[in-house]
Amino acid sequence: MLLTITWRGHNTTDLSFLLFKNPYRPQKFELGYGDAYVFYPELSDEKTTAALLLDINPVNLARGKEGSSAAGLFDYVNDRPYVSSSFMSVAISSVFRTAMTGRADDHQELSDTPLDLEAAITMLPCRGDSAMLNRVFEPLGYYVRFETFLTDEKFPDWGESKYVNLTIRGKILLRDLIKHIYILIPVFDRQKHYWVGNDEVEKLLRNAGDWLSNHPEKSFITSRYLIRLSPLVNNAIAKMAAAADENVIDEEEDAADPAETEKIEKKLNLNAKRLGSVVAALKNCKARSVIDIGCGEGNLLRFLVREKQFERVTGADVSSLALTRAKEKLRIDEANDSLREKVSIFQSSLLYKDIRFKGYDAACVIEVIEHLDTARLSAFERVLFEFTKPRYVILTTPNKEYNVKYENIDENKLRHGNHRFEWTRDEFQTWARKIADQYGYTVKFSGIGEIDDELGASTQMGVFTLC
Predict the structure, then answer these.
(1) Three-point CA angle 160, 164, 169, nearest 5°
(2) Residue 274: predicted pLDDT
C-alpha cells in the first residue's frame, strides 16, 4: 500500500524538513506486521513528493493470532497486505509522528503556513461508499478525485471493485493533512487490526477534535472510526457536544463599576450601529430572504424579523447552546404561525458545505471570520462564495488599526481573546477584492462606528454583489 504527499510551490524541497525525513536517503522502519519505507520519487524546487510504502508480511499477521488455524488459508489469503487500512494509519503515526504535531524547529513558520498539498492513497476500500469520499473530504477544504476499477475486466457484469485510488488536494497545513488521512483511512476501510476501546475515543478527539465536531458527516465518521460500537460512539459524540458548549463565549459582563458600565454602553452602542448598518445594507440590496451564518444568539435576527421587507429569515450557528438562546430571545415556541413560517434556525458550520445555506438573496457573516484559524479561511471562502453563492454577501470584521483607541489593548494584541486574527483596512480590502475577483463578485467597503481620520472606524464592512 502506498501513500504519497506532494507539495507544489517554491522551495518545495523543504517538505523534507517538515516531515523530518532525508530526501537523499531512503529510510526503512520495522513495524510489528511488516516494514515501512519513506523515499522521495520527485524532488525539485517547484514540486516535491514524499512516499510512504508499507510492505505487510501476511505471516506476521497470523502468527500468534487467537483462533488462527495452521491448516486454514483465511489468515493468509485476504486483502490486508494490499489495501490502505488501519495498518497504514499506524504506520503514519509511527513514521510521521513529529510532522503530525506541527513542530518543525527552524522551519516553524513554514509548518504554520497552508501549502498547496496533494495526497494520493492507493487501494482505499470503499465498498459502495464512493459518494461519501466527496462528502467527507470536501468539507475539509479538498478537491477530491478518485479512480475506480472493475472487479474483473473479464467479467464486467461483476461490477465495480470495492477499492479506489483516492487523490485529495487543497491549501492546508501539512499537519492537518496528515491527521485527516490518519483518521479517515480506517473510516472507509471499516476494519481495524487492533482492539478498539475507550482509548480509541480519546485518540479520535485528540486528532480530530478541532474539525470533527462541526463536520456535516460527524456521525458517519465517528461511527465508522469506532467500528460501530454504540457505547464508544455515544461517548465520543457526547464529549464533542460538551466541548462545543464550553467554547461558547459568554459576553455578559458585570456592570457594577461605573467605568465598566460606560465601556459596556459604548460596546452596546457600537453593536447596535453595526446591526443597523447591516439591516440598512440589506434593505438597499432589496433582499427579501436572508440567512445569518454564525448568528450566535440571534441579535441580527431580532432586527430582521421586525422588517416587513424580509419575507424569510434564517439563522445558522455551530453552537447548539447559542441557538437555544436565540430561540428564547425570538420566542419561537410562543410565536404565531406567520412568524414561525418566516423564521428558521438550524445548527451548521460555515466551514462545511450545507445545502440549507442555498436559496437566499443575501447571506450575512457578522463579526465571525476573525474567530477562524487562517488555515480554514479557504474552506470558508469556498462554502460561501463558490458553493452557496448568494446574490449578496454582507460581512463585517474588526479594524485592527482602531485597537489603539481601546484601553488595555497593546499594538500587537487582539480585541478579543477568541480572535485568531484581526485585519487592518488594507488587509481586509486586499482579501475581499481577491475573493470578489475569484468568485465573480464586486465589493464595496464602509466603516461602522466613530470614524478617526487616521485610523478609520472600529468595524469595517464589505458588501459583495454577484456580477
Answers:
(1) 140
(2) 86
Res 106: pLDDT: 86
Q: How far is CA 167 from CA 2, 88, 124, in A?
A: 12, 16, 10
- pLDDT at 265 exceeding the cut of 50: no
Short-list 396, 385, 401, 412, CA closest to 466: 385
The H or E element that residue 241 is part of is: helix 230-246
- C-alpha–C-alpha distance, residues 186 and 203, integer Å: 13
Better-predicted residue by pLDDT, 148 or 402: 402
- The owner of cell 510532522 is 99
Q: Which three cell numbers stand for residue 171?
A: 491549501
pLDDT on residue 273: 80
Q: Positive or negative, the Cα torsion across 64, 70, 74, 80?
A: positive
Say how far residue 324 (Cα) sits from the centre of its chain.
Answer: 23
> Is this prediction's pTM over 0.70?
no
- Scan for cell 491549501, then name that residue: 171
Contact 305, 313 (CB under 8 A): yes
Asked if residues 279 and 364 have their Cβ atoms less than 8 Å apart, the reply is no
DSSP 8-state code for residue 83 = S
The answer to whether the CB of 189 falls within 8 A of the CB of 86 is yes
Q: Quick one: average pLDDT of 181-193?
A: 85
DSSP state of 348: -
Average pLDDT, the chain: 84
Task: Answer yes or no: are the C-beta atoms of 319 and 181 closer than 8 Å.
Answer: no
Q: What does the angle CA 191 – CA 197 – CA 203 come to, to the nearest 5 degrees?
A: 85
351-355 CB contacts, 8 Å cutoff, 24+ apart: 351/139, 351/141, 351/211, 351/214, 351/376, 351/379, 351/380, 351/383, 352/139, 352/214, 352/215, 352/216, 352/379, 352/383, 353/138, 353/139, 353/216, 353/383, 353/387, 354/216, 354/316, 354/383
Q: What percentage of the chain reaches a pLDDT higher than 70?
A: 86
Q: CA distances (Å), 119 to each of 38, 170, 173, 174, 205, in order?
A: 15, 9, 12, 10, 23
53-96: pLDDT as tens digits: 988 876 655 554 444 444 444 454 556 667 777 888 889 999 99
CA dist., res. 216 & res. 132, Å (int): 11
Q: What are 49's three cell numbers?
A: 513528493
